[in-house]
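Narrative of accomplishments. A recurring question from our advisory board has been how the design workflow behaves on a single, concrete structure rather than in aggregate. To address it, we present the structure tokens for one chain from the evaluation set, followed by the sequence designed for it. No filtering or post-editing was applied between the two.
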């Protein structure tokens, strides 16, 4: 299949343990089967500079990091990531699949850290060069379900936050999804991965056509 004329920017959001990584992998396999050019990436990270910032942001040893520092580091990582990877790939007509983008900042640094939303608006516009995702999939699960899925791995600085923190994150994601219905698809993350994947493919049919998924 030929590249999409303007590319397609897809983001996945959700609390920790919601199943985003699994669905990104399944979507990649579907795009490969259709010979659709794509790029997968993540936030924070995606480029050498952004990954270096990620290592600071998620380091559990940096428990003294202030919310303000956290916000600015995320936006710095995003600015580099967007300019160096996301926008060029979209200009080449590729599908860009990103595990988290700026909605996570509104959920984690805005709702959970209680930072000023107007300030986040300004920094987001600056760091994204005004680029909004075309489609966002929110994998929604109860907090205890998500946290139980990750308890066996070594937790990063944000994963180690308490349940109340993650509950505020979840509620904010649902609020954003309700406010931005034109680009959001809310999925029940407790369903079987194959069923969730079918819902994602159905939502993407107007962009990538039908397949054998």
């Amino acid at each position: 299949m030929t590249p999409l004329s303007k590319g397609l920017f897809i983001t996945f959001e959700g609390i920790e343990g919601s199943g985003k990584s699994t669905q990104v992998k399944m979507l990649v396999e579907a795009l490969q089967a259709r010979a659709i050019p794509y790029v997968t990436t993540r936030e924070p990270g995606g480029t050498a500079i952004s990954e270096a910032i990620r290592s600071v942001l998620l380091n559990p040893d940096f428990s003294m990091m202030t919310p303000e520092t956290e916000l600015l580091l995320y936006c710095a990582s995003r600015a580099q990531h967007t300019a160096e990877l996301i926008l060029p790939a979209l200009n080449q007509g590729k599908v860009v699949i990103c595990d988290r983008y700026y909605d996570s900042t509104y959920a984690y640094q805005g709702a959970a850290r209680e930072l000023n939303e107007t300030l986040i608006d300004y920094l987001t516009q600056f760091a994204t060069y005004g680029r909004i995702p075309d489609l966002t999939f929110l994998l929604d699960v109860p907090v205890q379900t998500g946290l139980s899925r990750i308890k066996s791995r070594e937790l990063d600085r944000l994963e180690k936050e308490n349940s109340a923190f993650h509950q505020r994150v979840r509620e904010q994601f649902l609020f954003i999804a309700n406010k931005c219905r034109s680009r959001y698809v809310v999925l029940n993350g407790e369903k079987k991965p194959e069923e969730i994947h079918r819902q994602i493919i159905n939502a993407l049919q107007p962009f990538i056509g039908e397949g054998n998924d």
